[in-house]
Every structure is written in C-alpha cells, then in structure tokens.
Amino acid sequence: MKFSFRLLLALVPVLLLAPGLRGQHAADPAANIDPLLGVAGGGNVFPGPAVPFGMIKPGPDMAALPGHDANAGWNEKDDIRGFSQTHVSGTGGGDKYGNILVLPTTGDIEPMDSTTSPRANEKASAGLYSVTLARYGIGVEITAARRSAIYRIRYPKGAEANLLFDVSHYLLSGVRTGEAQALVSSDVKVLSPTQVAGSTSVTGGWNKQPNTYTVYFYAVTDTAAASRGTWLDGQQQPGGKAKLPRQNAGTWLTFEPKAGRPVLMKIGISFISVGQARRNLEAEIPGFDFAATHAAAVAEWNRALATVELKGETPEQAQVFYTALYHTMLMPTDRSGENPLWKSDEPYYDDYYAIWDIFRTSGPLLTLIAPERQTAIVRSLVDIYRHEGWLPDARSGNYNGRTQGGSNAEFMISDAYIKGLKGIDWNTAYAAEVNDAEVSPADHFKEGRGGLDDWHKLGYVSIEGSDRSGSVHMEYAADDFEIALLAKGLGKQDDYEKYRARSANWKNLWDADFTVDGFKGFIRPRHRDGSWLSPFTAMDSGSWNGNTFYEGNSWTYSTFVPQDVPALIRMSGGAQTFVDRLDAFFAVPLRYDVGNEPGFLTPYLYNWAGRPDKTAAHVRAIIAASYHEGPKGLPGNDDSGAMSSWFAFGQMGIFPNAGQDLYLIGSPAYPETKLHLADGKTFTIEARGVSAENIYVASATLNGKPLNRAWLRHGEIAAGGRLVLRMSAKPGNWAQQDLPPAP
Predict the structure, then answer these.
(1) CA 416 to chain centre
(2) Beta strand 654-657 with 195-204: parallel, antiparallel or unpaired?
(3) Are 46 and 57 contacting, i.e. CB atoms less than 8 angstroms apart?
(4) Which of 35, 588, 621, 643 shows its CA 20 to 30 Å from the CA of 449?
(5) Structural domains of the chain ordered from first start
(6) In angstroms, rounded to a whole number, what is the distance separating the alpha carbons of residues 565 and 58?
C-alpha cells in the first residue's frame, strides 16, 4: 500500500529556521492544523471537518482517477461529486464508506452521475471545510460535531436552489483488488418541506467481509422547500419516499431564490436507526448556529492538542507537528452507543484500519497524551473479544477483517498494562491474548493467527502454513512476548515462561549462513520440511498472498525483534558489526522504506549498540526528506495516523519501544516540549542549543542529575520532571556505555 522511498542520508536536515519565530500560541494549538497536509501524494488523509475520533466525517468525494486510492474521498484532479458523511483517513488499498452524499445544485434537477462540479477556493482548518462549486457558483461550508454536521450553503442570487441527497452513494475504487463495496439497499423519505431521512446498506470494501453495514441519517434545513421529490436509478418519482433493493435512491429539495441568505442544513447519522440519528443531531446541534458548532469543534481540538506544548518552534514546525497529532486522533472511530451488533456499557470503537499500523506509535502516543482515550480504545478491543470471540487486527464497518500479519492487539493491550492504564478488565484481556496464541481461527484473514499448527509444532511459520510467512513468523514472536509480559503482571508464572520462550522463536528463521554485502544472518522463510526458500534475496518483498514478507523485506524484518534487541545484536555479529549493518541498511536505496511501519523502530536500534549519535542523524535525515507542509507532506499513506505519530515522537526526541515501558532518546527538533500528563504532571524535554546543525546530544540531565543513557522508563516520564539535553553539531561519546536493558 506504500511506495518505497530512496533515503539520501547526505541530506542535511534543515528543520529549525529563524529560531526567533514562534508557532501559534499554546492556548490555540488548533490554529496550526492543516487538514489538507497529506491529502495528495498517496497520503490519503481526510480533509473534511471532524472532532477527535469523531464518528461523522463529512467531506468531498471526487470522481475517482483510475487506480487511485480514493479512501478519504478526495483526490487531486477530479471534480466534486458531492459531500458524503462517512470516511476513513490515511488508508490504502480498497476503500470503505462514502455514505449519504449531499450536493447543492442550481437549475433543473439532473441525475447525480451528471452533476459533478469543478472546485475553487478549497480551504480547510480545524473543524471547517469550505469550497466553491464552480459549475454552479455555490459556496459550501461544513463543520461537525461527533455524530452530526451542519452545512452552510450560499447559492447565487436569483438561481433556483436545489439540495440533492444521493442515499445510495459509496466510494468505489477497490474493483481491481477485489475490495469493492456494493450496494445492498437504500431508503429515503421526505418527511416534510424541511426534513429528509433514510438509510443505506452496503457490503464489502477494504476488509473484504461480506457482512453489511447500514448508515441511517436524519437531515433538516432551516428553509422550507418549495418543491421536492425522489428518484430511483435516476428516474424521478412522485411522492416523498423511495426504497428498493440494489437500486439507487435519492431525493431533492428545491428552494425559492432568496438573495443574500444562505441555506443551512444539518444532518445526524447513526448505525442504529433513523430515530437515533435524529437524537444525535438534536443533542449535538439543537439549532442552526453554524458558528457555535464550529467554535465547539475548535475548542475540542484545542483541549486535545494542548497536552503537548511547544516552545521556540517555527510556524512551519508548529503546523506540521500539530497536524500530525490531529491525524493521530482521527481514527479509530468512537462509536460508543452506536454498536448495532450488541448492547454494552463498554466503549465501542471501530475502524481499526489497522492495528498493524497503529500499535507501534499511535497507541503509545495516546497513552502519554490522552490516557483516558487509550483506555477506552483498549476496553473496546476487550469487549469485541467478549462478544465475538476474537480480538481484531483490523476492523471496519462493525466487522473484523484484513488481518495484516500477526495478532497485534496484544501490543495495544499489554502496552496499556505495562504503562498503568486503569479501568481495564485485565483477566478478560489476557484470555483474549491467549486465544490468539492458541486457537486456530476459521478464517485467519478475518482474525486470529494463521499457521498456528506450524508455530506450535515446528517453532516457525512455514511457507505452506501461511502466506507472508516470514513477516507473520516475526510478528508472532513479538506478539507472544507481549502475552508473556501480561502473564507475568497477573502472576501467571508458568504462562510467562511459556510465552517468553516462544518469543525467541524468531531465531528459527534466522539463516546464519545467508550473506549480503559481507553481513551474515538474515530472516529467511522456510518450507515445512525445514528447507530454506530458494531462490531468495534479502530484498524480496510482497503484500497479500506472497510467500516472503508483508510490506517489507528481509533487511527490515531482520531488525524486527523489539522483544530482545541485545540478542539480535549478538546474532548479527556484535555491536560494531550491527552498527555497520544498519549503516548499510540505510545507505542503499530501497532497503529501508520510510513509508511502511515494520521499520519504525530501526533508526533507534543504534542506541542498543552505543551509538545514539547515529540514531539522531538518521531520524533527522528521514524527517527532513519525508515530512513537510503542503498536500504532499507525508511519505505515502498516513495509515490512520501511524506515519504522523512516528513523526511526532521523532520531533519530540523520545521514541517508544511499543509494548514495553522503554523509550529511546533521539534528537529533539524544538528547544522545549512540554507533555502535560495525567494527574497534573508535566514532563519537559529541553534541547539547549538545538539548531539545524546541533542535532547530537552532548550531555543530559534528568531532574537536575546527570543522565548518561539514551533511554527512559515510562515511569520516569509519567512522574513528571525535566529532561535537559545539551545539543552539539558534532557527535560525542554520550550514552555509549549505559545501553537500553534487555526486557
């Protein structure tokens, strides 16, 4: 789902310019958000208005380019079809959602497939999207609450003004990959000259599950329609309602021309019923106050973003950083109270798209800056297991599906436990993790782990046991380590030893004789009879149905041992050889892929070999080459905020080893970063003398005492305090001896 990126380490990371300039004041961090950052170049982020983890995401849908991943509805070149109410953000592959399309027009009512319009004056900010539909001269502004939105539509003077509702619409760009959505049924009713309601039922999409999701809506305008009607498959119908299976249903309202007065339309959605959609709308947007709804959305973003406070940053740095935090808080989607499958008092989150993407950085970031939100997300995962019997690795449209490799919810759950999040049913959470490790699923594409018989009997996942066997095997080892940590915490010593031992199974795919450029030992897939895959190169990679690695290669997966980096270094030939190997990994084009998650931790592995200076240089170079302002400011799919959260940690200067209580110190980009944590605690990272040249840590103190290590425990951060890093233009010998501990 990503492109490979040529990393040029010779680039000098110019990240700090004009140090006298400041970003937006800390009281208004939402003013720095640019929702259009990353919409193009494969970033696929959602450009419309939203609140943190909001269920409704109203935004523009464009006619899809051939082969374009129109997952968020937006693309760079095409005309606007209208504005649908449901989207994902930053994803690749086939699409999902794009439901309940609305489009204002002028003149005669035309079928929806002929009403597209070029755009002009497209703008976006926190909680607000606006555009001019150039074909009609209509200005559209949208703002949103959690489950409802309000539109302000300015029609040209003297024109007969229409508002069309295409209830059957959905995004469709996954045909070539077998990930296409398909309409099941649609239903629409004009309840009065100001009220429209209905639903759409759609099946399929990215997670390839044949299960149907239904989106209900209720909409009301502040202006009564002079005329109204419905259509079925483009044919206008008398009366005020239309419903037929697998046919396109819609309706329109036509308003008499009124000079200078916008038409306001507000809409609520639900996954439960039209009545629930109406209640959502009336609770969140009781009147037609567009400005108040927008102000409330901005205030919500300010509260969410104020947990990280920067000092001394440039305007560009502030924009890219706070937009990264914003992207991290768009998914998964908070649908608490909106679960159509079962009733529960627990939180319900959907659109884990996918945990394989977000467990490394997004989850740990929320644990630091939004622990109550991360607690709710983990409780949701446990409740899904409680009612469906499986943890999701990916989930959308209320159904599991599209398992990327391992069972990575283990990381999300154990990370929360290790870092002390409260209010989670740990015994049920542990049972869910063990179920993943011990029970073969009926469909491992949907949930659980494929190839478990091999894993249990052979100690590795064979080529015959599962597709993508190399990467799947490495993930199972890391996942089992997370189970071991939770077992230990719950006093299950025998289980701890069992899963800790299994976490070392990664060595069973280590071909100690396989050599590339003088470096011996690489992860290599094996057949069930024990023989190695041949022919084979360390650059072999793939996606679904391959027999090597998922979105990575052996260079990458031969460094993916987050559960025991010291053992990896020993297997690689010792610290100096490991450093040389990492240098070779980053130096050759296409070995390292900035746009995929398996390599997230790799630049920080130098810390375990006593070379934090090399971590600093590589992290700075990667960011300088791959992240910036503008529509193409991300290195490919944002993956539900995964790329953005990786960037945020890199800029703050600390990086989590997910699922453990360990953080690596990198190279902070700002003179000062304050993390406002739970219980009123604040942890400050001060980088004295930091600049575009001064990227290396020369010395450090923690709470006034010398710190000669390039790592921290979670408890040291959570307790609050001050980390002072004195920066230099030249690498020194800081933190070369006190290495990160083995877990």
Answers:
(1) 18
(2) unpaired
(3) yes
(4) 643
(5) 39-302 (2.70.98.10), 306-728 (3.30.2080.10)
(6) 44
